[in-house]
Structure formats: structure tokens, C-alpha cells
UniProtKB/TrEMBL annotation:
Pfam families (UniProt xref): Tad (PF13400)
The organism's place on the tree of life at top rank: Bacteria
Residue ranges constituting the Putative Flp pilus-assembly TadG-like N-terminal domain according to the UniProt record: 13-58
Name of this protein: Putative Flp pilus-assembly TadE/G-like protein
Organism: Murinocardiopsis flavida
Length: 132
């Protein structure tokens, strides 16, 4: 005995599988790209922290000797923080105010799987550090 199939059911399971697999692949791409963006944001956070600490180490020694107050050399602090950003492959903004340095690090993330909309997103993070 051979099984009887209705001619109206041929190919419907294949179309369902193709549509379902397309949706699964799109979801996997979204998860991969979202995870990559989170990793990039973590890297931006680490770079901002490191650049702020590097800048906060640039004390104005003349002011420290004369007054005993810890104050940053604004030009040296900004230069050191900007150099750290550049060496890490990031760009950003740096603000020096008295004894503190605030750094915003920015990194670009290019999506790998989802070509929908903008392919590049920006991951940024801000950190501050005070002179020791």
C-alpha cells in the first residue's frame, strides 16, 4: 500500500521551512550584531577610563610646589588623554577642569549581518578621573 497524498499539499511544508529559516537567520544576525555593539561599548568604556586616568596623572608641578595644591597642567593632561585615545583607535572629547579630566571615547561598529538601515553605529562612553 502506498500512502495517498493530496496534490494540494505539495510544496507547502517547503515554503514554511524556508520562511521560518529566514526568520531564524535574521534573529541570529540581530543577536550577533547587538552583542558586537555591546562589546564595542565596553571597549569604549575601558578606553575612556584609561585616557581619563592618563590625563589625570599630568600634574602642574610648579603649582604643587608653590601652593601644595594638586592641579593639572591642562595642556599636558589633554595631550596625554588625546594620545591615549588615538593609540587605542578611538576618537572623542576631552575636558580638563582644575584637578579632573573628563573623556568621552567614541568607536564605530559596522554591522556584519543586518544590512537594514544604517550599517555603522557609534559606541561611546564617558569617564572622569581626578588628580592623585
Amino acid at each position: 500500500m502506498t500512502p495517498r497524498h493530496s496534490r494540494g499539499d505539495r510544496g507547502h511544508a517547503s515554503a514554511f521551512v524556508i520562511c521560518t529559516m529566514g526568520a531564524v537567520i535574521a534573529c541570529l544576525g540581530l543577536v550577533y550584531d547587538a552583542g558586537g555593539m555591546l562589546i564595542q561599548r565596553g571597549q569604549a568604556s575601558a578606553i575612556a577610563d584609561e585616557a581619563a586616568r592618563t590625563g589625570a596623572q599630568q600634574l602642574d608641578l610648579a603649582a604643587l610646589r608653590a601652593t601644595g595644591q594638586r592641579r593639572l597642567d591642562p595642556q599636558d593632561a589633554e595631550r596625554a588623554a588625546r594620545t591615549h585615545l588615538a593609540e587605542a583607535g578611538a576618537r572623542g572629547a576631552i575636558a580638563v577642569d582644575g584637578a579632573s579630566v573628563t573623556v568621552t571615547a567614541r568607536l564605530d561598529y559596522t554591522s556584519r549581518f543586518l544590512p537594514i538601515g544604517a550599517r555603522t553605529a557609534e559606541a561611546s562612553s564617558t569617564a572622569a578621573a581626578r588628580a592623585p
